[in-house]
Amino acid sequence: MFGTVKALNAVLMFFLELSVLASAGYWGFTANAQWPIKVAAGIGAPVLLGVLWALFAAGGGTNATFPLHGPVRMLFELAWFGAGAVALYGATSLPPAAILFACYLLNGVLRLAWNQV
Fold this sequence. Notes:
By secondary structure, the chain is mostly helical. It is built from 4 helices and no strands.
């Protein structure tokens, strides 16, 4: 039973990662700018965040090019998920952004407690 809960927490992490990328794209495409800027931001922001994740955090660090560990990993995740929450806030309002970040914080605490990092 506990193994299933831990697996669900890992699945939640994956969906939170996708949510950050979607939030960045949504922010870009809804920006108050001319359409070329919207397209560039809507495509560029998630690509930039995806590249950063691939370089430093993919697969819990096992698939990353330059894996981060310990406090540095924690700071990177806070900044990365924080960027997604800020993008969602910029595109919509505070409650969805706060929910996204709160879900990440809960997931992060559980991953630390269960040694899933």
